[in-house]
Amino acid sequence: MNATDQGTDAERRSRAATELERLRPALALDAERCLGRAEAVGFLARLDRWFADVHVPVEALYGSEVVEGLVRGALCAAAERPVALREVDRRREIDPGWFQHQSMIGYVAYTDRFAGTLDGVAGRLDHLAELGVTYLHLMPLLAPRAGENDGGYAVADYRAVDPRLGTMDDLEHLAARLRERGMSLCVDMVVNHTAREHRWARGWLAGEPEFDGFYLSFPDRTLPDAHEATIVDVFPHEAPGSFTRVPGKGWVWTTFFDYQWDLDWTNPRVFAAMLGEILWLANRGVEIFRLDAVPFMGKRLGTTCMNQPEVHDIVQALHALVKLAAPATVFKAEAIVAPDDLVGYLGAHERYRPECELAYHNQLMVLLWSGIATKDARLAVQSLRRLRPIPAETSWATYVRCHDDIGWAVSDEDARAAGYDQFAHRDFLNAFFSGEFPLSFARGARFGENPETGDARMSGTTAALCGITDARDRDDPNALEAAVRRFVLLHAVTFAWGGVPLVYMGDELAQGNDTSYVDDPALAADNRWMHRPYFDEAAAAHRHDPGTVEGRVFGWMHALASTRASLPALHAAGESAVLPVDSLHVLAWRRRHPRSGNFVGMVNFAERAVSIDPRTLDGLGVLETVLSSDEPPLVHQGRLVLPGLGFVWLAQP
């Protein structure tokens, strides 16, 4: 069945209403029996709220006959939900925008590199609390396959933890400790594929009926060759091609590596199985699921096999069913795609369709690094102005760095409007941040370079890319001052643009590249490990000393977080708007809150002071400086002066 068979939206919702009317009496009896009277009332209220968002996409994907079984699965998960998590559910049903609060600060870390084990993470919660962290994303920790595992993204068991890190009991205990501190646990959920060692894959290989049709495979190369004419290799050198020969199964679809087998999401049993894993983990205390590789779940011949309509149906239905059973839970889309495609994962369709509450603002990250290299804000102004707004119920996750390489996702349209050639600009950024460009301060490294096209992506920590490492190595105090200012400027945008700012582990201590990965044969071929360092205890010991780089950076991160928490205009439900200024070096933006009024942020990418026309701020009311890199901005000869590599946050008193 496909969307064209479904009729109008009104007809689809009418069928959903009819089906709910049919199912509700029996579900009401079962809910009261499983949950008790009070909890059943809540479940049925959620059923009324979310049923159409289950029925409409599931009918389009698989037919309406599977809806009842999925809803009953959600009811069973609700009945198994621990009391402590039901209490969180109640609070979040009253405050559904909890993840949008201006006090939300995320921290992203690899468990082993941050603290060794899950028990060790519990011992670092004071460090996180000092930073104001309210959401902790621990990078892939579910049990991976032995040997090569794509950094943990080849999951062999969703219901077990990597034994190097601890056990599922340890994860539950950590989740409880986090809740006591007002922190939420985020875990990666790989939804496009599993490791070939997963129980589902082994059952499929063995011909067990339960797993029939769980993975995408073809008897010969006819369809794989046809698909490969339009899809793009994710790892063209490390894992060329998207299909792998498997004895007895033909050519299995392997988008990433040959040991990661793509699930066949046209099979309703795959949907039900993955839903079961998500709900099981939610009942262990996971509150935020980062849906990894989500754009790849839908495959259509003649397309890139990314961002297909079926993907949005799958995510909408998963989201609604999880809300039925565990309403405290939210989804974050790992969708590093073109901006116009990305907003769909936040529900921004012609009609709002709830999918993920959070998505990475990859575009903002790329534009900030471009501004740092060029000292020019025009590309950022052009791109951010053109970006489609997202629904008020959702939020961006804003960040300077993450665990992955930086891909220079700049559209040709935006590049031309800003006066750049798209490909030449990417070449420049790669040369600049790899340190190959004359007078560059960056110490990054090219990743995944394509010798045929010259295209590449970039590895390196924030400190290495913004010049802190270079300045320290040269013992140049002036260069170090400029580098720290770049670091602060970048975070001044991500903390105030709008959304949930994420801090990548080690950045709060200005940690540089870790080259020890080259000594590990399992990691040596992947230079992304240079920006995945181990937590530096010695650096952390200096975090309160303002005379050190670590102390300066940590102090600024604390100031950004604490000031942000006091500004209602930075609640993520608001909308950011780029302000027009008459300097090509300045990015300025406004946010508005119905009670607290306007907020304005401004950053100067140039290394010298620049000025703008203060009439830019006309009509925004009386604004006062709440935080800035320097003394409050000066007015000189009727112009508002911004220091070199400076920032200012202004708000109505």
* Average predicted confidence as pLDDT: 95
The residue ranges in which pLDDT falls below 50 over 5 or more consecutive positions are none
The largest sheet has its strands arranged as: 1-2-5-11-12-13-14-17
Strand tally is 25
Helix content: 25-40%
CATH superfamily of the largest domain: Glycosidases
End-to-end Cα distance: 56 Å
CATH class of the largest domain: Alpha Beta
- How many alpha or pi helices? 22
What's the number of structural domains?
3
Tertiary shape: globular
Give the structural class. Answer: alpha/beta
Q: Do you know the CATH topology of the largest domain?
A: TIM Barrel
CATH architecture of the largest domain: Alpha-Beta Barrel
Strand content: 15-25%
Radius of gyration: 25 Å
Major sheet characteristics: 8 strands, parallel, barrel
Structure, briefly:
The protein has 653 residues and is α/β, with parallel strands linked by helices. Helix content is 38%, strand content 16%. Strand 11, helix 12 and strand 12 form a beta-alpha-beta unit.
Task: Write up what this structure looks like.
- With 653 residues, this protein is α/β, with parallel strands linked by helices.
- It has three domains: 1-80; 106-189 and 340-570, Alpha-Beta Barrel (TIM Barrel); 577-651, Immunoglobulin-like, CATH 2.60.40.1180.
- It is 38% helix and 16% strand.
- The chain has 22 helices and 25 strands.
- The strands form seven sheets. It has an eight-stranded parallel barrel with strand order 1-2-5-11-12-13-14-17. It has a five-stranded antiparallel β-sheet with strand order 18-19-20-25-22. Strands 7-9-8 form a three-stranded antiparallel β-sheet, with helices on one face.
- Strand 23 (634-636) and strand 24 form a beta hairpin.
- Helix 2 runs antiparallel to helix 3, helix 3 (67-79) packs parallel to helix 12 and helix 19 runs antiparallel to helix 20 (477-494).
- It starts with 8 loop residues before the first helix and ends with a strand.
- The mean pLDDT is 95.
